[in-house]
Amino acid sequence: METYESIYAVVRRIPYGRVSSYGRVALLAGRPGAARLVGYALHALRPGAGDEVPWWRVVNHSGVITNGYEPALQQARLVAEGVAVDDVGRVDLRRYLWDGEEGPAAYFTGSACPSSSG
DNA sequence: TTCATGACTGGCT
DNA sequence: AAGCCAGCCATGA
């Protein structure tokens, strides 16, 4: 399905150690409002896809892991990349949210100050 | 084609 | 801050 490919293409653009929201991916994929479709596309990935698509770097708009397949796996994947995950599976989008930038510079575009709290 | 479901999101109370 | 409702698009029966 072309629609899915456009979604996977965006998910693959998510840099290492960064996360994005379903709505964000849907927007970048050219399907604004179809956040549900993103989750559906990732659901269609299945373990057979392997690491071809970094699905674990996708969380909801609140930074919470709403993964219904392997929520523990996604959390582990993120932590393995250096992404801080809360006990409830929540990620600090203010630090890791991928705004769609190509380079890692986006990490410094935020007003957050990691050395202040974390 | 129609009805129901889902790894979602924004606005109101 | 937390909970509820409607809209979005594609899949499956």
The CATH class label is: Mainly Alpha
Estimate nothing, just give the exact number of structural domains.
Answer: 1
The helix tally amounts to 7
How do the strands of the widest beta sheet line up side by side? 1-2
Helix content: 40-55%
Order of helices and strands: HEHHEHHHH
CATH topology, anyone?
A: Arc Repressor Mutant, subunit A
Q: Helix- and strand-based class?
A: mainly alpha
Find the count of extended strands (DSSP E, 2+ residues): 2
**How large is the radius of gyration?**
14 Å
Largest sheet: 2 strands, parallel
Distance between the termini: 42 Å
How confident is the prediction overall: mean pLDDT?
82
Shape: globular
The stretches of 5 or more residues where confidence is low (pLDDT under 50) are 104-118
CATH homologous superfamily grouping: Winged helix-like DNA-binding domain superfamily/Winged helix DNA-binding domain
Relative strand content: under 5%
